[in-house]
UniProtKB/TrEMBL annotation:
One function term, GO molecular function aspect: ribose-5-phosphate isomerase activity
Protein family per UniProt: Belongs to the LacAB/RpiB family.
Name under which the protein is recorded: Ribose 5-phosphate isomerase B
E.C. code: 5.3.1.6
Organism: Campylobacter geochelonis
Keywords: Isomerase
GO-annotated biological processes: carbohydrate metabolic process
Catalytic site: C69, H102
Keyword Isomerase: yes
Amino acid sequence: MNIKRIYIASDHAGFLVKDESKKLLLDLGFEVVDLGANSAEVSVDYPDFAQILCQKVANEDEAYGVLICGTGIGISIAANRNPDIRCALCHDTFTATMAREHNDANVLAYGARVVGMGVVQEMLKAFFSTEFAGGRHQKRVDKLGCCC
Ligand code: RB5
């Protein structure tokens, strides 16, 4: 997969895991842009950060995203309101791999209160190295635009 840039964002609950995730992505050689939040102490609203990141990912070629909140649930729900975003809430290597292979996900979400950094590292590696399989999955992904 061609990856020009990875945007990363979280709310306060995901702040520390975002910082660690950013370091892991930089170590893997990716260009990473951190869109906040900037503190674990100041309470913020996850939809605001999902919206900022999704606008970036949707408007740039070969841009991907990582979103983190306490559970990953709220921030992934918010992200999927953008019709150009396929945000996958993942919990392990298998879901992170399938999110790319079957769903052509362009944003990976996870919960800072759900997964440890070991799992995060494996998910990041899996997600950002797995190609979309296309074929029968393409028509299903195409139908995502008209689900509702
Ligand atoms: C914040 O306390 C928490 O509700 C949020 O990070 C997230 O888990 C929501 O889905």
